[in-house]
Amino acid sequence: MSLQTQQALAFTGSTEDKKLLKLVSTEIPKPNSDQLLVKAVAFAANPTDFKHIVFGWGGKDAFVGSDVSGEVVAVGDKVNGFAVGDHVGLFEHGGDPDHPHRGLFKEYSVVNPSLTIRYPSKLKTLGADVTEYPASKVETFEGAAALSLSIFTVGQSFAHSFDLDSDKTKNAGKTVLIWGGSTATGILAIQVAKKAYGLKVVTTASKKHESFLKSLGADAVFDYHDSDVIDQIKKFSGESLVYGYDTVSDEGTWNSVNDALTESAPAIADNLLFLDKSVLKNPKKNVKYTKAIVHLASGEDQQLTDLVITGGQEFVAAHRKFYEKVVPLVLDGTIKHQPLRILHDGLGSAEEALSLLRNNKVSAEKLIFRVSKTE
Ligand SMILES: NC(=O)c1ccc[n+]([C@@H]2O[C@H](COP(=O)([O-])OP(=O)(O)OC[C@H]3O[C@@H](n4cnc5c(N)ncnc54)[C@H](OP(=O)(O)O)[C@@H]3O)[C@@H](O)[C@H]2O)c1
């Protein structure tokens, strides 16, 4: 391989389990004046990665991958606040047919600084013998890769959809329901809701995760398998339950979130998979229904097959406001990354990671792999 080329993962075009990805050789890109070039160390897998091909949102040959951490190796002339050698974690819209080069499962990527967290202390790499790692302050490349897309997903929901007041005291007495507290998104949403915004937090998850989610800041954890889970939540929260955050976002969970919310106070319900009011059995007049997509943080329009989601500066402003409030809490360890499960076959682990996500074999953890096999 010459110095100008690199290994990268792209869609094969197949939707068959374990046949989604191919390793290709591609040029190492040069950053524009407003971009960074990042040399990858660790990657995290996300459901959106397999959905882009299985749900038909992405294109054959588009590069895949939405979360990476690594080292900055070049900085565009107009970029402030970053330098060569910085350790960073960031997300991008991988698999996007309109921007097929943006997928991050490659050795080098040009990236948008506004979607990037710079870690002032140097990050470490976990040892080859580590296969599981607990929720911790971000001090490793693996932890930095895990957190990026999830935290800024919460950002679009909390700072744009809910438009939460940055002053914690203004949110006192209000409750948020985070449906799916053990999802990669939910684990961060619980911490952000409690520690950054001062909300009371109720969440749903399998019983086995109760003590972990309480340790992150959940005031109450309800088992979503219980047939009377909505009654339990309503009894606990009453009319204070004014924010509903559906991090699972299927028709069933969207209806459950709606049913649990207050019957009278003004409330907002937000989901992550473009569900609207039409699929609700009992829409409520006091509830505003919203949906969030992390990629709007860039301000650009997003297209998923026939669905066009219009971007704009309001999403960028919400992202900035959230970034300024929450990234300091990540840097000082108040907000921890998710528990990690490390796969050790380098870029070769990506296919396994997407298969595990697709087959619902992931629970309260983020799947991480690195560029090369760990010996
Ligand atoms: N719009 C966006 O920008 C955006 C961004 C990120 C993710 N997403 C979407 O959001 C969803 C979550 O992504 P993720 O990566 O956070 O998920 P994930 O970590 O892959 O989700 C796995 C978790 O889902 C939980 N779960 C499954 N069914 C549930 C139910 N009915 N009620 C409560 N919890 C349930 C499981 O809980 P237990 O193990 O406790 O049973 C498991 O811990 C995906 O559909 C993804 O595509 C959208």
UniProtKB/TrEMBL annotation:
SUPFAM superfamilies: GroES-like, NAD(P)-binding Rossmann-fold domains
Family annotation (CDD domains): enoyl_reductase_like
Enoyl reductase (ER) domain segment(s): 13-369
Organism: Kuraishia capsulata CBS 1993
Gene3D superfamilies in the cross-refs: Medium-chain alcohol dehydrogenases, catalytic domain, NAD(P)-binding Rossmann-like Domain
GO MF term (any one): oxidoreductase activity, acting on NAD(P)H
Cited PANTHER family: HYPOTHETICAL OXIDOREDUCTASE (EUROFUNG), ZINC-TYPE ALCOHOL DEHYDROGENASE-LIKE PROTEIN C2E1P3.01
Pfam families in the record: ADH_N, ADH_zinc_N
Name of the protein in its database record: Enoyl reductase (ER) domain-containing protein
